[in-house]
Amino acid sequence: MDDGACPLCGGDLNYNQTFYLCEACFTPFNPQELAAARQARARVETDAASGDVLAERAGAIGWVVLNRPERRNAISLAMWRRLALVFRELDADPAVRAVIVRGAGDKAFSAGADVTEFEQTRGTPEKARAYAEALEDACGALAGMAKPTIALVKGHCIGGGFELALSADLRIAGESASFALPAARMGLAIGHTFVSRIVGLAGWGRAAYLLLGARAVGGAEAAAWGLADMLMPDDEAPAYAEALAADAARLSPNSHRIHKQVLRDLLRYGAPDAAPPANRALPREAANSADFHEGVRAFLERRPPRFGG
User: Fold this and answer.
1) Which of 44, 82, 148, 256 shows its CA 20 to 30 Å from the CA of 246?
2) Among 51, 87, 48, which residue's Cα sits nearest to residue 66?
3) CB 143 within 8 A of CB 118
4) Which phi and psi (to 5°) does residue 114 adopt?
5) CATH of 49-248, one of 3.40.50.10260, 3.90.226.10, 3.20.110.10, 3.10.20.30
6) What angle do CA 206, 212, 216 make, to 5 degrees?
7) 108 forms bridges with which residues in the sheet?
8) What Cα–Cα distance (Å) separates residue 27 from each residue in 21, 34, 99?
9) Strand 178-180 to strand 156-158: parallel, antiparallel, or no bridges (unpaired)?
10) Strand order of the sheet with strand 156-158?
């Protein structure tokens, strides 16, 4: 049976009941060796993308920058893998209280996935599955963060870039922003997770418009539809996003964690009563937290709270 690409040369692999053999370089792998080689290849690719995905911290705010302005920040497979790693590292860092994702330059948040590598990265069913998993893992790592996340969108926000922006809690858009999901132009399709987010934000009909028409909508229209949460001149958007993140960073991390779980539950289950009982109990448990007691003390002492989360 075919089992995708050789991690050494990219050739096709065939399985002969006991080991895998590359048809191009004739390297044999047992299943354990193949898994280890693929993990090593993924680490190399992730490291190679370190210059294309920048992670910075300014005070309590983490910045993640898609850094390929010459390609309008098109996202490669290696970048998807690095994004997942970066988001998880920022989520685990207690010094980071809020995260902003942006594109380098002024022309694009992201023009989407890097189409020029598709033959190499999505050319077989196995590769296509691995690519989809990498994209979903990166977006899932952003959506699953316990701290507030903001996508700062200027210029094009297309395809996979739009999916990444949808995975943030908030989208602050400059007036140059435009959003599009042109998957059908290339014979691709957007998955249930991202379509459900669009339906939740903009409604079924507007989701259908984006998917079936593959047309772009401008920043003003996106804001009216609920796809962008705030719209302002391009030169004002970065400062606004940073101020919003700074405000969020001063609030209770425990409250943020609970509120984000409530929002995820409502998106996933619809009706509040459909959420798991343990999740529905989380808001009540906030009154037993150290953050709650600190908030009360700070109010009574007329000082800013020092939340620990």
Assistant:
1) 82
2) 51
3) no
4) -75, 100
5) 3.90.226.10
6) 65
7) 156
8) 6, 10, 43
9) parallel
10) 108-110, 156-158, 178-180, 217-218
SS (H, E, C) 70-91: HHCCCECHHHHHHHHHHHHHHH
Beta bridge partners of 113: 75
Non-local CB neighbours of 44 within 8 Å, separated by 6+ positions: none
**Is 183 within 8 Å of 151 (Cβ atoms)?**
no
Closest alpha carbon to 83 in 110, 106, 49: 49
The tokens describing 63, both together, are 């910045």
Whether 155 contacts 176, CB under 8 Å? yes
Residue 148 pLDDT exceeds 60:
yes
**pLDDT, tens only, 71-104:** 999 999 999 999 999 999 999 999 999 999 999 9
Structure tokens at 250: 């001063």
Largest CA distance in the chain: 73
In total, the chain counts a number of residues equal to 309
Q: How far apart are alpha carbons 252 and 292 in whole angstroms? A: 8
Task: Enumerate long-range contacts of 119-125, CB under 8 Å, 24 or more apart.
Answer: 120/10, 121/76, 121/77, 124/2, 124/4, 124/5, 124/12
How many Å apart are CA 258 and CA 273, to the nearest integer? 16
Q: How far is CA 195 from the centre of its chain?
A: 14
CB count in 10 Å sphere of residue 251 = 17
